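ok so for the tutorial part 2 we go from a plain amino acid sequence to predicted structure tokens. step 1 is just haveing the sequence, like this:
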Amino acid sequence: MLEIGHVHTLLIEQINDSGALLRFGDELVLLPQREVTRAMEVGQEVNIFVYRGRQDRLVGTLNPPVAQVGEFALLRVSQTNKYGAFLDWGLDKELLVPFADQPERMKLDRHYLVHIGIDNSGRLLASARIERFLETQNNLKVGQEVDLLLWKFTDLGAKVIINNRYGGLLYREDLPHGIARGDKMRGYVKRLRDDFLIDVTLHKVGKAGRDDARQVVLEALQQEKTLPLTDKSSPAQIDTLLGISKKAFKRAVGTLYKEGIITLEEECIKLKATKRDK
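step 2 — the prediction. this is what the tokens look like for a chain of 278 residues:
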């Protein structure tokens, strides 16, 4: 079955003045003339994003939008009218957000995180009612690597969307400096909670995470000999210099100190000189 709002690999059946007609079972999809290249020929397979154009005709494009059906994206409002708000998502045909799918009335030129969906008639729509599309049951495991999309900031840190399916929380101490709504990251499952939310972190958890942070600090010290960081340094300073959280930094420093590899000064940490260095 041809899924509207997704990329498909289709076979060119004919090329005419309107463009290229591509077949998927009993369906024909038009790739407009402006996107047909000289290299294209009948019988060739082409990857195109499929949507409904004017008069509900199936249309394809070689340049897919920023998100497909079932995904979330931060998009700009390009116009509003009596039907709702229209979002710029990379296609000539803008994406409608009906008023019923706007928790707050959307305003021109502002950006909103939305879920891309489709109605019963095959029309592509977006909704800003994010919670409606988040699944509560999951088969994730602690330590598993996942895709994260920053949804919104809270007093505890930031709500994120995990693998385009689940709601999660990235705590303030783990937030990178300069991060913004709509940013995509790779992270790790930290804790599976009873309220169906998932705590995540940007760093490996358990022994693997501790070993990684230790290695980051050690390699930086081996290169610089001294780091202008202490346990009083801000999370932003530590993230800028090392790319790790303050908690991970403190654990790594504690481990290196116990191992006798570093010394702790009032305003910095130093790599101990070895006999070869003296």
